[in-house]
Amino acid sequence: MSIESTPTPSALLFDRSDRLLMQFTGPKAAESLAGLVTNDVLGLTGGDGQYACALTNKGRIIADVRILAVVGESGVVDTLLADASAAAGVGFSTMIRKYVNPRTAKYTDLTMATTCLTIAGEGALALLAASVDEPGRLEPMADGPRFTHREVPFGGMTVRVVRIPDLGGIHAFDLHVAAEFGSALTERLIEAGATLSTMDEWHRHRVMASWPEWGIDMDEGTLAQEANMDTLQAISYKKGCYTGQETVARVHFRGHVNKTLRRVVYQSSELPPISAALLSDAEAPVGDARSSSLDDAQRGVGIAMVRREVPDGAQLHWVDAGGAVHLARVIGAADDA
Predict the structure, then answer these.
(1) Same-domain check for residues 185 and 298
(2) Is the pTM of this model over 0.85?
(3) What is the pLDDT of residue 336?
(4) Residues pairing with 53 in the sheet
(5) Label partner for 204 (CA 20 to 30 A): which of 99, 147, 266, 271?
(6) Same domain? 106 vs 199
(7) Helices in the chain by DSSP H: which ranges?
(8) Cα separations in angstroms, 197 against 86, 187, 290
(9) For 211, how many CA atoms within 13 A lie in the half-sphere containing its CB?
(10) Residue 186 and residue 267 in one domain
(11) Is the CB of residue 292 less than 8 Å from the CB of residue 207?
(12) How many Å apart are CA 217 and CA 167, to the nearest integer?
């Protein structure tokens, strides 16, 4: 698919530089990471990426991470990049320092040395193509799978462009650049037509797309499959051993979880606080609210942890601090927005 050379104005720009970014190199880098996350790191080739989780021994989520494979001059993958939200990054970096031997898998925290911008919207890719020095390098981004990434020259800067799925059907790309060039890249994208936006707006779009965030929708008390990490393509059931694998495999092959993240819509623009109980008609607690926001029509939408026996379409309710009852409806799994 070719990229249109004329950008449309529908592109928002977000600064997400608080995300953790770690670099792994060395002969055992891929093997070391593979033993700590749920996806098949060893199967990655250059320009590939994947979503994955780091788990406790009991299969509960320490962090959700993206892992990108980078090819060196030898033509083989010699570097892996892992990034996570600021909240999830705390647990992930602690796990890395505890279990990875830096003599065989050198790791470096690049967070402070890197600016992470995200450009999103119908015109995002076209705007990038009109701005970079070699737009042909972005061609794999047009139809490539999630987390496809390329380094692209950008007016004297080198920018890694990563295709991300966080906003569902909205095209979105992370841009990693050396922190010293962060302001220049921001200015150039705004001059090209991008609109600088806020993290509140980012989270609004994320919630509309039902993309979970660690620390709000899931945490160290959440099993991987409760957060739909299998259907979000964060789990390989064919790879070798990793921390927490026994629980993940047992749930997959022998049973099921009792609750999962689900999409909900609310009666009005009144939104429940995080952890507010969702009740059935019989006043039984069957779930709890997690992320919520207003969609483009000013309707309340959200992500909630709901018991599996509650069917799609079920009407629930929550009660605010003043005792008022507000309706909510379950509309599907949180990964099918």
Answers:
(1) no
(2) yes
(3) 58
(4) 64
(5) 147
(6) yes
(7) 29-34, 86-99, 124-131, 139-143, 182-191, 199-208, 245-254
(8) 19, 13, 23
(9) 19
(10) no
(11) yes
(12) 15
CA 64, CA 67: separation in Å to the nearest integer?
A: 10
Pick out the chain residues at pLDDT < 70: 1-9, 335-337
Q: Name the burial class of residue 193, with classes exposed (0-12), middle (13-18) and buried (19+) by CB atoms within 10 angstroms of its CB.
A: middle
Q: What confidence tens digit (pLDDT) does each residue in 250-280 have?
A: 999 988 999 999 999 999 889 999 999 999 9
**Which residue type is seen at 267?**
Q
Answer whether residue 72 is part of any domain: yes
Pairing of strands 259-266, 277-279: unpaired
Instruction: Tell me the residue range of the domain where 129 lies.
Output: 12-206
Any idea which residue has 């770690």 for tokens?
22
CA-based angle 160:224:88, to the nearest 5? 45
Helix (H) or strand (E) holding 101: none
Residues 178 and 268 in one domain: no
Other residues' Cβ atoms within 10 Å of the Cβ of residue 218: 26
Total domains, the chain: 2
Calculated CA dihedral for residues 265, 266, 269, 273, nearest 10 degrees:
-110
Say how far apart CA 246 and CA 242 lie, in whole Å.
9
Report the CATH number that the domain containing residue 284 is assigned in CATH. 2.40.30.110
